[in-house]
Design brief:
Length: 150
């Protein structure tokens, strides 16, 4: 053991009376297990109780009363069909784009393998079908609207 290591061990040993430690020590403070944690817990409990009392005391907050009658109305059929059209077109376009990207990846990684090229062609056909359905979605929904009577 070197001289420096022995000096460090002596400095950390509270039973030695040789030299005071060169390391800074923490100042003497009040006991951590004193009243401070209990006071914080009491303050937190009091704050929670006060907030709960304030919420219960105000009727609109306690009963969630909006103050005016709430009328719930369903959308009309044309609005529902327009929303459905937007969703269907978005989903079809996203799927078609996914298949187009997959077709490109398959074709780029084929490396001359005929099975992989056929797989890429199939994904490309699926992408084209998806884009076609996305374009035809408004027409198909007009047919559905005509059948339903909207």
């Amino acid at each position: 053991m070197s001289r420096i290591q022995r000096a460090r061990l002596r400095a950390h040993n509270p039973h030695t009376t040789t030299q005071p430690s060169a390391l800074p020590t923490a100042p003497a403070t009040a006991s951590v297990t004193g009243r401070r944690p209990a006071a914080r817990a009491l303050a937190a409990t009091a704050t929670l109780a006060l907030a709960t009392a304030a919420l219960v005391a105000v009727p609109s907050a306690a009963f969630a009363d909006p103050g005016a009658p709430v009328v719930l109305a369903a959308n009309t059929l044309p609005v529902v069909i327009a929303n459905l059209q937007a969703w269907v077109m978005g989903i079809l376009a996203a799927l078609a784009t996914l298949f187009l990207v997959l077709a490109g990846v398959y074709w780029a990684t084929a490396g001359g393998d005929p099975a992989q090229v056929d797989k890429a062609k199939g994904a490309l056909k699926n992408a084209l079908v998806g884009y076609g359905l996305a374009v035809l979605a408004p027409i198909l929904l007009e047919v559905v609207k005509g059948i339903v009577g909207g």
